[in-house]
């Protein structure tokens, strides 16, 4: 893990950067003039600068030029006007060297200890600090005043194989640094430059598990740093004043604090919280003083800051679109400089020079240096940056007055030292230390007076200290002229001329066109002269004198032909593959502006109309080998010719994975990938894979598959190789990631579930046992977390299916686990998207709440109360998860599987017979029509037998009457019947012969033993049993009414008045009286039911 920044960003850099749009700007031309660029018959440029190696001293003579950084370590540090650096001697030990910028003043510090390695040489106060290793494996921190006697070892950690720098920084007179292996834990230390004053600031392992520390950032009188808790996988913001008690965490509610930057004595940084996406925050070092600086993108999406830097008192950063912004720390003072939509993470601000902001851009292939002038200006390309060594975070540069020196890159010369004055003509490459052999890797750019010190390699000495004196005379250059004004005039050019210190605009250009040695024929960088004023012979000498502000002058002379076409060629040799476009080009100049006819021996030549020409050709299999390409340039007077070698190779086969190919597979399922391939003229020999089966589909596409097991490894490499008949091949290095599907759970609860602060529980809450159709309830949706599929959560999208005929959604809540949830109820399905999760840790077997949904009964529906032939049993609620997709920083659209369903069941409201959501007169009327019915012989009567005793009785009537007035929404509690042991198979019915209860409907009567609990439940404190039933005495014989008078096939009529019949009649009369009394109470409580109550009392009175 880098100690420069701890940031939860696991995705590969190139995956977050988009290729640069080609339509955005007019590019700043890269100027790299060389003598070899000109093919003038008479001579080369006379003032072409000699190739210089700028060598200061050869510290290790004979060192291997191919070794990188083997003999010079990490640049220079200045102390008291002297620059120090670490160099290796011929005994292979590092020691301290010092220089005043001259070869004579460069020497090894006498008596300095010999080290196996030295790194991170920095100046704080009046001391140099460096990290040294005596044994080559463990490093300690040292301080020195530049002498052997003044060198002190400050630590004795003996951390073997310590690969992480101490990253020392200073706050006042105190130097803070970190120590540890960079993997298990690091701690923060401080020193005053003495061994006695070097001590641990705070033992952070007592408060966090295996902490890692990074981004040590001074601000005011405090030091701020990131602390990464490896157990929780979280980045925290801490501060210290150098004391144990003054070292603590701040911004406890913030996630991923990054880009710690001092600005105006306060610390600014990017972070997110539950309410905001990644935005800019500020702190004074206290919890109360940690506040949102401003919100650039309101809501939870955030601005996605990158490269926050304080440059000359202004904050610069890039945002979600990759555009460059600047800010004074307030929203009103924050403006966009560019509007190009470069792509997230593609850019980062670097420095301000001449009022322009210079920034890096990754275009998908390499890094480039760009600049932008002002708000909404069009950015300009300056040059390339090496993708091999330096990233945009580590651009080596140094500024001296109007000159910016930096390490730049172009494809012809590799990584070299460049200089710009901020203009196109003033942007030039200075060195070419490794001609035709790649990069010289200049770094450690440091000014010591008028000397620019740097370290670079050449083909002879390898990496050595080098120096460039900026007081040297300017470099004079002449370019091929152009014919203008329809051939009546000529435009001269001193493009490529520069001074090490002064801007091109401050240089004086004087021209000698007649060869008299006097520079009085023209003036300026691009003068135009009339042909009529010139005297031509077969050749013409043009000279320029370039003078800087210190009156230093240099000269250059070009000789060109007046009769022939003067030509330059970009490349003397080209190598391409068959089927690829071969391109070459150059410049041409005819002194009299004559029409030129281009005739190539192969391919096509285009006159670009600006003094340049372009040749192109697409070779095929017949061109395999090397061919000399010649081009004739005929101006009507003479024919000029140039040639170059074109070498055509068989094209290597190319195999690629389709971007739509699956990035992972579910364990136990078939893993697949697919893609395309291209070949040149050679046929394919084979396409193979190191795992699984691969098929050549014969149409330029391939398909791969592999049957995974349920215990498949999370990651395996898959190498797919295509080989042609010539033995040329390409290997595609693929990765097979396998994951388990996301386990989804539903629980039915009274309310939204209670979780911890990050929305997690270790055990799912128990479901409600049973509810009725009018009860509100909450559906809680959970995922079971595991380290692979739940780590670095980004979004979870799913659909919650429900029965919209029974229920309707009342409200929803995200809970503590995340702050952004969109809900779209489309009727029967609720589409949900959850994001901005509080805990990015993967978890392991715990449960994350991803939504709570409150349901109420559907006022226009409900569970149907129409069961016939059986009593209505409770039913499942019918909730399900449909099509859950989970996306993390690593995986997109991991599918979910519902692994458990709620056990809660719902039962109907028995008294709401018409299913209208209210218990009223209509329900009462329906019931009255069924009184006396045995359910065994009248299946349609089941819904009316509330107490399930086998008959629709007055007791059922009383239950309904007691619940009249209750509705779905008024909250009146429902009084449910006590369920009897079913008597539906016993068809006893007592009927009246002369007058029926309600138009001939039967009145059932059961034995008191089986009805006692129902009567009590229905009539409550009316004490019907005690008041209306007289139990038989011990000496009286109890008659089994059901056994004696079970006459199921015809209405029963008594043949005699037995004592039990008289007693039963009295009980019935008592019951009717009580029922009438209940109706009177009901009428008093509900006057609107008066007519209905009178009607019922009338019919009861006739019984």
From TrEMBL:
Protein species of origin: Blastopirellula sediminis
GO terms, biological process: polysaccharide catabolic process
Transmembrane segments: none
Protein name as annotated: Dockerin domain-containing protein
InterPro entries: Dockerin_dom_sf, EF_Hand_1_Ca_BS, Ig-like_fold
